[in-house]
Amino acid sequence: MGNLISCRASITTGGKLVLSDGTIQEFDPPISVAELMLEHPQQFVIDVNSLTTACGTKVTPLPADCMLDPGKVYAIVPMTRGRNSLFPGNCATGDEEVIEKEKATKADWSTEVFEQPEYLSREFSIKGWKPSLRTIEEKWWWGGARHRRAPQERGQLHGAHPLWFLDRAALVHPNRPSVIHGPVRFTWADTYRRCRRLASALATRSIGPGSTVAVIAPNVPAMYEAHFGVPMAGAAVNCVNVRLNASTIAFLLDHSSAEVVMVDQEFFSLAEESLQIISNKKKNSFKPPLLIVVGDQTCDPKSLHYALSKGAIEYEKFLESGDPDYNWKPQRMSGRV
């Protein structure tokens, strides 16, 4: 590929990654193979040191959950059928017998560059693919932001926790757009900071595990942020359909024991009527929830001013009270529906 890399220990502590086009990238913090495979589809990662012993043979790729060592050199190789593209010829010259055998071998799944996992070998046969009825054994894995990893917490969270999606998007694509709503534009880094602000602001008001935050709003940025920010605080999010009437919404708010109600300014009167129904039912035992009104530049500001006059907190002001670097910790997923 026109680049020469020594497999010996480098003077710098950063690792090196050789891309399929021959370019070299350095990485300092450890990264996982899964992140690289997402960035480079239909390619796999190998340890360059394994090339010295894999001459003329298949190269075993690193597993997706493997963390790359900053002190080593790795390469990204395309997935191709037939002979390994890294070794166009045999290491030992004059091996005609091996060459003839390889010419006689038909290209099939067994001639992949990568070693097939054991479970794939059972499922593929000469008759074609056969679906498996066995359940997939899921593994517990600690993922997400590296600055929050702790040894005592490893193995306690599921690797597919939804909150890690936002964490990774902000890490890999911080400047790409995440939300577009009229004149509002947010990047993934912006959305991540806003969600952490929301979680921090809720936590400072003792909203956490066991609490419920109801959201009465259409598809606006605040609704999207609530799906991440509320779970980051450990609370449960209860999204209420804006097409329901006041009595039905009152039942949902009362049944979920919502301690916080986030409502779009357009539907504040509906939320106010629903809370009044609960107040008339419970009378002196009714404890009003914290009202947060979501302003929208595309709506008439009169409804926003009315909500603020009733003691509601404006959503953006509420976010300003939160910490953008809030150290959130997701709750363990029970798997119950």
Automatic annotation (TrEMBL):
Protein's recorded name: AMP-dependent synthetase/ligase domain-containing protein
GO MF annotations in UniProt: ligase activity
Species of the source: Ananas comosus var. bracteatus (red pineapple)
Domain AMP-dependent synthetase/ligase residue range list: 167-279
Family that this chain belongs to: Belongs to the ATP-dependent AMP-binding enzyme family.
Gene3D superfamilies according to UniProt: 3.40.50.980
Pfam families: AMP-binding, PADRE
PANTHER family given in the database record: ACETATE_BUTYRATE--COA LIGASE AAE7, PEROXISOMAL (PTHR43859:SF7), ACYL-ACTIVATING ENZYME (PTHR43859)
Keyword Ligase: yes
Keyword field: Ligase
